[in-house]
Amino acid sequence: MGTKRYKRDFKALETRRRRGMRMLARGVSQAEVARRCEVSRQTAMTWARMLAEDPRAWRRRALGRPGSLQPKDRARLGKLLLQGAMANGFSTELWTLARIAKLIEREFGCAFSISYVWLLLREMGFSAQRPVGRATQRDEQAILNWKVKRWPALKKNARRDGRTIVFVDESGLSERPTRVKTWAPKGQTPVLQYSFNWQQLSLMAGVSFWRLYFRFFHGAIKGPQIVAFLKALKDTIGGKLLIIWDGLPAHRSRLVRNYVESLEGQIQLERLPAYAPEINPAEYVFGYAKQRELANLCVDTIAEVRDYASRRLKSMQRRPTLIRAFWQQAHLAL
User: Fold this and answer.
1) Terminal CA-to-CA distance of the chain, rounded, Å?
2) Is residue 212 part of a domain?
């Protein structure tokens, strides 16, 4: 016959711990607490030490087989996590499992293990993610007004005037690869070898409702390069254009302004709200290209970078579902 196994009564153990710690808080000796609660002197000493560190320790649940948080507690925990780590008393905006475990213990009196906190977060629909940076100078109300009021008006006027809407943005490329995670044997970090003396290649891209346009330039983007790109867009698309872009100083240069005025209304310009790159679909062209199409690309010359990037961008042009995805990411209704 096998040895009979007994289940531990965690509820009874918890009740006994709380009773013993309340007695200690009233001044009952450790020896007397151990006798009345039928525990060892060592256990009573542990309870006394916990009380010395935290006078409210008797109210906390002990470690052991944890019970799951109730739905209402999970909902509150989710709200606390969304407030951010600093709003909850931590020094940086970094949620670690240890910090979340500490938050749960502080707010709900439940001392959970790190592994259980991980499972709890997964059940709540949370995952570890790299945060996106946002400028403190952003005017959230102005951005919302642009999306809710200005953008629908721009679409309506563009349809009335027969204009093609094109969102435009700029980025840079070099021989230095965009490093992303890849598979490798455990403990053997992959090594990318590339030149640390790289040249700069500028890239301008435009996104309409149905197509992607791009052009490369050597060096920085200035007025002449922007005019060249606008001319290329006009020749390729034909008809009237509505160009929507950010407040880059080169966009407001006298050269660009004179060129647009010389067209007598063929091109209209619209400026996006400040510090709001996430509502520009062209921004996601660069993110996708660098993180997917050009990820971990190691070449010797800037010419090779341009040739490879050109091929991948042309491939992206032939994928209408991908272009629609850029609009969806910007949360702009078509």
Assistant:
1) 73
2) yes
